[in-house]
Amino acid sequence: MTEVLIQQATPNYDVPNLLEPAGKEEKFLALVSQTKLASTEAWGLLVTLIMQDAPFLIFRIIVVYHFGLVSNSILYFIGKNSLLVVLELYRSIIILGSKDQDLTPSVSSENCNEELET
Question: pLDDT tens for residues 8-30?
Answer without folding.
Answer: 655 555 555 555 556 777 666 66
